[in-house]
Specification:
Arc Repressor Mutant, subunit A, binds manganese (II) ion, 41% helix, DNA-binding, homodimer, SH3 type barrels, WH_DNA-bd_sf (chains A, B), alpha+beta, Transcriptional regulator MntR (chains A, B)
Chain lengths: 220, 220
DNA sequence: TATAAAAGTTAGACTAACCTAACAAATAAA
DNA sequence: TTTATTTGTTAGGTTAGTCTAACTTTTATA
């Protein structure tokens, strides 16, 4: 049985391994920063996780999830994203509100609960942010997606996921009436600052920043 | 902000105050036994709760919830029973399975979640065990109910709630196809051992023990 | 009312998860 | 290849929640 805190360390490690695409390893300071604790604290926990065979790690070395560790981490991520979907779909939470509550709900221990919840939600593949929901067997659906900033002028796409999940960005998207699945056409890219003129569904054209285009994943 | 553990102490105190109908006070050992900790542990926590003005208590004295303490305890009970209802109604949990998971879910912090959940469930008044669900304002619906054992032969009633919520009893009820609302007619009471012959809905008569009749609340 | 039993408290210790301050190792820069 | 910087560890301490063992107060019983 894993403690609340141990679960958070494992999930952090998994998230970092997605982030550092090339090498799925993480460092102590990186972990600590991600979790909002001091490096000394992370070191202690890492020793404990190693003892439990959830990570491979040695003094001054990089940290990597073991198979068991990864399995556990994926299970937590699965719960997180299922709960987010529940809150969004069934309880009318907006997509910038779901994360905080899911951070708590992901630690509820009950195999039956997760599976029944998934069934209740009709086996969703993606959460409200467009992130894939791991299956019960640990598989993670993959969707080919690109950053909006990678498309050429003239091309069209559909919003697939948000890269930046900050409240500010999510609320901005909401204001623009952009959600997962929304159609976007790139009209023009301004060479000067990388900002672009886009058409959202059939609305009037508008301009968004390069930062914006770097924060949104789309499907061609 | 209350800790997980503090919340459990407050809820325990509220439950004990329902149990000891005459006097809503509790003793240290009683609390400890209820929570599955040692008396010494309870003493420590009681001091802390007193410090936070959640209970009135003094050395060797009885323990009583303050208004704030009671308000908090009711909020937790409300969450517990709403979650039980959710699990039972929406996720197909059986009524002996809901409690354990609700014990965890009741500690999720999110005012919006509770209220949205209540709305989603259509403002239920009673949980799967027939226990009243406190309203957002703290009011607790009351239903006039009697023990099955208090009825005279010949009378009819409807099952209102279970007094004993043990798995064994709940599963026995399930086997007898008795649930909240089920109609029961008392045919005969055996003077020898207090057992009684009853008719469940329109089924064949059957005999149940006095212990059984003392564990079931009904409505005349 | 004296004594035995029950109820409750205190002291001291442990573990998990955190911290700060001082140190050590690894890496990057000069 | 030294030196400086970054990265990570260790030592020692704190708090919440738990325990055991010894003690004290209250209550019940003879
Ligand atoms: Mn999230
Ligand atoms: Mn998400
Ligand atoms: Mn319950
Ligand atoms: Mn209940």
């Amino acid at each position: 049985m894993l403690s609340y805190t141990e679960e958070n360390y494992l999930k952090a490690l998994l998230k970092l391994s997605f982030q550092n695409e090339d090498k799925p390893e993480a460092g102590t300071n990186e972990m600590a920063a991600y979790l909002g604790v001091k490096p000394a604290t992370a070191t202690d926990m890492l020793k404990k996780l190693k003892e439990k065979d959830l990570v491979t790690y040695q003094k001054y070395g990089k940290i990597l999830l073991t198979d068991t560790g990864k399995k556990n981490a994926i299970a937590i991520l699965r719960k997180h994203r299922l709960w987010e979907t529940f809150l969004y779909e069934k309880l009318d939470f907006s997509w910038d509100e779901v994360h905080e509550v899911a951070e708590q709900l992901e630690h509820i221990q009950s195999a039956k609960l997760v599976d029944k919840l998934e069934e209740f939600l009709n086996f969703p593949e993606f959460d409200p942010h467009g992130d894939p929901i791991p299956k019960a067997n640990g598989e993670i659906p993959i969707l080919a997606k690109t950053l909006l900033s990678a498309l050429e002028p003239g091309s069209s796409c559909k919003v697939a996921a948000v890269k930046d999940t900050s409240t500010l960005f999510l609320q901005y998207l909401q204001k623009l009436q952009i959600t997962i699945g929304t159609k976007i056409k790139i009209l023009e890219v301004i060479a000067f600052d990388g900002s672009l003129s886009i058409q959202i569904e059939d609305e009037e054209p508008r301009t968004v920043s390069m930062k914006f285009a770097d924060s949104l994943f789309v499907q061609r």
